[in-house]
TrEMBL record:
PANTHER family: ACETYLTRANSFERASE, RIBOSOMAL-PROTEIN-SERINE ACETYLTRANSFERASE. This is N-acetyltransferase. Pfam families: Acetyltransf_3. InterPro entries: Acyl_CoA_acyltransferase (IPR016181), GNAT_dom (IPR000182), Ribosomal_N-acetyltransferase (IPR051908). Gene3D superfamilies: 3.40.630.30. Residues 10-175 form the N-acetyltransferase domain.
Amino acid sequence: MFAVRLTADAELRPLNPWHAEEFLANLDRARKNMTPWVSPAFVATDLDGARLVLQRYADRWARDDGGIWGIWSDGTLVGGVLLVSLNAGTGVCEAGCWLEPAAEGRGLVTRAVSRLIDWAVDERGLHRVEWRVLAGNVRSIAVARRLGMRRDGVLREVVAGPDGRSDLEIWSLLAPEWRAHRAGAPRGADGGERLEN
């Protein structure tokens, strides 16, 4: 078991299938804000569905092609970050996030994704981290900008949804860019140290 301190009252740690009840409760609190931006396959509506989502990511972790971590604030799961994909052979991964409204505005996602990128670049030796976001998702685009990512381009009308088709923006950063960004970026009041149990 490990945890990474994000703030004095928040930490990042693995999100496992046995957290399904907490995950479903978090999704229920975040559902209205998430639904326009996140795949319906992720936004489970019942306990079995929540367990299935977490099991898919546990299986991805076991195959070394993805993973999921929760953000807990004062002991409550309020969101998380994930590696939607990870390919050590090509050196490319795709990161993502979600957060319930009550936890917004505290920098939790930016800190959590920063730790995820640190791991991907420093420990796994990945070269490129991607961030794929629907064009209207200004909060997620703001995270990409804060992380020092660049917009590579737009896939026009590539995502079909109930209200029509949407553009998908592709943002990314390369390992050397991340190292330069990190060297100039503040780490938070507590330094974001790793906690071991």
